[in-house]
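Two records follow; treat each independently.
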Amino acid sequence: MKNTFLLCLLSIFGLISTASAKNPFGDKLPKSRFQFGGSNTSWFFGANVGGNVFFGDHDKQYDFGKRIGPAAEIYGGKWFNEAFGGRIALSGGGMKGLTQTESLSNGKMYDASQSLREQRFTYFNLRADVMFNWSNDISGFDANRIYTMIPYAGVGVASSFKEPSVTRFSPHLGFLQTIRMNDKLDFNIDIRGNLLGDGFDREIGGRNYEGILTTAIGVNFKLGN
């Protein structure tokens, strides 16, 4: 109870301190980045490119550098207020790993002593994200903030293209960092981990899950005034 009371006092003190701080812009308030509640001023869209790594049954035996495949995504979304937003994204890329099933390999032997062959396949992931503007939550809204931290979480479906095609439900967590370039444009650094059920690489190995780790960079365009 004492701890709760102390936390409340500290929170109130922090709010009062923030409210009484001198405005660095003087009497001129910064131009709002979003006019929340407007019809078209908080929408955004963008694209990223980068690399991804698949975590499958035999991939730990593969050199990490050889496991990095290309990745790309496009997305669009909306900020509902200063803290929370949502977006829909379509991402995909190429996977590189190892398999002990010859029919699933590209025919190249990697380690004959373990019957490991190289495996290549492509996939796509359609997902929905719930986004949280951590920087606004910590420091308050600032239309001219240069660096912004946006953790996010969501769900989607992922499907491999190569036959036999496999589709899995795919929850994910991510951390988006944006660097403001101007009123309309941000530079993105996006890191995301997707969780998949066993067999996404079309090989059932007894694992409870498989996964994808993606790191990408790109641009974000903001609509409206």
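The next record belongs to a different protein.
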Amino acid sequence: MVPRSPEGSDRWASRGSRLACRIRDGVSQCRPSDHIERLRAKLRSARQRGTDVGRFVDYMDEPFMQLGGEIADSEKLDRFKSGLTGRERDSVYFSRPSTYEDVKQVALSLAGSNQPTAAPPRPAVSDAKASTRRPVSSQARRPHTRSMGTPAGRVTCYLCKQEGHWKRDCPQRLAYLQAEVDRLSRLQAEASRGEEAENQRRPG
């Protein structure tokens, strides 16, 4: 029986509140009320400072995943760029990525530790299993038509200058990013050689 004293009622109400909180969040304890602000403060103070780019990506991905819909992709992009240091920072700013995934690809490619972002290929189906599957009808293979019509005006890709897709959907996007990274690396190497030659010409 639930106690009828005020003290007992408060105790039972407190237990019920904690239980409801655990059920709602699916964790053993409720998150503190300032959890979002703590994650944002962590992102504001995040700096690479000589850390490997791959580890810095993992460090930034953790609060991004916890924030979920609380943070926009543009803010992810800005937070990541502001946290980079050294040649990675310069190369990323010169390449002008438009999304958070783009900036990760540029940084990881420059560091020589580009990680695969696509899911692993599915295993092949054995002949025995394939024979039990129902054949796909011709109606199912018919291309799906859009009911909203075509967009007004033709779309031209900013990268390859071809019509029919946006920059973010360009099949050559990663190749362009890699070429930009290689170009920036060559420029940095030429600048370093020019500086060394200038230092050698100076009188001792």
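Discussion point: DSSP finds eight helices and no strands in the chain. How would you locate this feature using only the token line?
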